[in-house]
């Protein structure tokens, strides 16, 4: 019998420090009104100094495993998507998170696809399960974006937040509980639209080696490309699977900017009930944004087993992707 991959559970963790737009007014040339009007963001949450992406991810992951009705020992593979890993280079945040969960002697690795992280995670988990390689996969989007923000740059630092979202992907024989389709893509020629410079200074030997790591973004160019690319991508995946807008229970886009979400949502003719919006509360939490939004509708009781979700994301790389996912709980 054919094996399908199923999104069995969803959970998130939101750090406790809530930062309002007005908190930026004292230190930057900005206003609550500008941020709300241009982005839709009202608040975001920042992790504490001693909380890293692996800590945020571990809390979300524990709950996701519990909600899947599994024990940590049942997890065969851990994959984390993050642009704000605990350590640059190594060890991976997935290894740290596994250790914190008590998972040992299992494969664990990170992926670097910025805000498209959760869609890429779904694609990987689907392949590993459908090929029969693994049975239960923990996927986590975990971000302490605040650790790479330049708090002197008003055009970026007001946009992002910290948080984590986790899901357990298991195997099923029921297609109507499966991850129906995932599409991922990238175009590295636009690498400098969104990036964190980490260039070597001088020849290296006995010299100070790293320049600042802060995130930089060509906001306006990214905005235009995001609307165009996402609309095309979503139209394509729906057409390929013979699914119309009315068949979708929830459209859960990456939460970067309310204006991008509204533009894509309107072009695709989704009603306001179908479109999930959390950007006003959490800001842009990069790879964590889609699972955090999904968890919001789960915890509020709106998301039910068998509901069909359409996900889409766009981020640094540039990367993008979309997915059609039945909630397999
Ligand atoms: N407060 C007040 N003024 C500001 C602020 C601020 N926080 N930030 C920028 N401005 C100013 C600019 O300096 C500019 O001033 P000027 O006209 O005097 O030069 C003016 O506001 C307009 O700036 P724009 O950049 O044109 O503003 P825009 O309407 O494009 O909004 C934004 C900027 C919010 C960044 C938007 O372009 C955006 O959301 N872009 C897409 C982000 C995105 O989708 N990223 C992908 C995912 S993220 C990831 O992968 C990590």
Description:
The protein has 329 residues and is an alpha/beta fold. Helix content is 31%, strand content 23%. The strands form four sheets. A five-stranded mixed β-sheet has the order 1-7-6-4-5, with helices on both faces. It is globular and about 60 Å long. The model has no long low-confidence stretch (mean pLDDT 94). The structure holds acetyl coenzyme *A.
CATH superfamily of the largest domain: Thiolase/Chalcone synthase
State the CATH class of the largest domain.
Alpha Beta
What's the story with the biggest beta sheet? 5 strands, mixed
Report the CATH topology name of the largest domain. Peroxisomal Thiolase, Chain A, domain 1
| Helix proportion | 25-40%
Q: By helix and strand content, what is the structural category?
A: alpha/beta
Please give the CATH architecture of the largest domain.
3-Layer(aba) Sandwich
User: Average pLDDT value?
Assistant: 94
Helix and strand element order: EEHHEHEHEHEHEEEEHEHHHEE
Write down how many β-strands occur, each being a DSSP E stretch of 2 or more residues: 13
Residue windows where pLDDT falls under 50 for at least 5 positions? none
Shape: globular
Describe the strand arrangement of the main beta sheet, using strand numbers: 1-7-6-4-5
C-alpha end-to-end distance: 20 Å
Number of helices: 10
- Integer count of domains: 2
As a whole number of angstroms, the C-alpha radius of gyration is 19 Å
């Amino acid at each position: 019998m054919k094996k399908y991959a199923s999104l069995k559970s969803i959970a998130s963790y939101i750090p406790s420090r809530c930062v309002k737009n007005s908190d930026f007014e004292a230190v930057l040339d900005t206003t609550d009104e500008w941020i709300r009007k241009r982005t839709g963001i009202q608040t975001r949450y920042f992790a504490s100094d001693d909380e890293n992406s692996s800590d945020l991810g571990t809390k979300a992951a524990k709950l996701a495993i519990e909600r899947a009705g599994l024990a940590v020992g049942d997890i065969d593979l851990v994959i984390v998507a993050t642009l704000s890993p605990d350590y640059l280079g190594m060890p991976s945040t997935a290894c740290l998170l596994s250790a914190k969960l008590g998972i040992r002697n299992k494969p664990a690795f990170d992926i670097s696809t910025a805000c498209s992280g959760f869609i890429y995670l779904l694609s990987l988990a689907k392949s590993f399960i459908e090929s029969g390689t693994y049975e239960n996969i923990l996927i986590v989007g975990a971000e302490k974006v605040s650790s790479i923000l330049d708090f002197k740059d008003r055009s970026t630092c007001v946009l992002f937040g910290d948080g984590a979202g986790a899901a357990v992907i298991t195997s099923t024989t029921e297609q109507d509980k499966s991850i129906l389709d995932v599409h991922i893509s990238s175009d590295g020629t636009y690498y400098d639209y969104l990036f964190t410079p980490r260039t070597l200074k001088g020849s290296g030997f006995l010299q100070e080696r790293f320049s600042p790591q802060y995130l930089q973004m060509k906001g306006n160019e990214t905005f235009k490309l995001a609307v165009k690319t996402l609309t095309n991508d979503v139209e394509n995946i729906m057409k390929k699977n013979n699914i119309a807008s009315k068949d979708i229970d929830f459209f859960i886009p990456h939460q970067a900017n309310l204006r991008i979400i509204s533009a894509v949502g309107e072009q695709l003719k989704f009603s306001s009930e179908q479109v999930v919006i959390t950007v006003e509360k959490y800001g842009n939490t990069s790879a964590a944004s889609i699972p955090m939004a999904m968890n919001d509708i789960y915890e509020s009781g709106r998301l039910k087993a068998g509901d069909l979700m359409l996900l889409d994301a766009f981020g640094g790389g540039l990367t993008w992707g979309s997915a059609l996912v039945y909630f397999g709980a």
